Amino acid sequence: KTSISIKNLKKNYYISVVDNGKGFDTKQSNEFNRQSGYGLFSIVERMESINGKFKIKSKTGKGTHAVLVIPVKS
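Now predict its structure.
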């Protein structure tokens, strides 16, 4: 099961994606790079290019929670 929520709070959009899938061990990949998964690496690069943030929490067997913070243009 996957849940997605989008909120607009003042100067940022917050996109939250939560799933109850197999998850993964974040300790094995302390930073996102091409070896840990090109998809995650690409998200980090894109968020940095727009001064956004990307946070992810996951545990093996416990699912994953990712949050993207996207600045709203004024």
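The mean pLDDT is 87.
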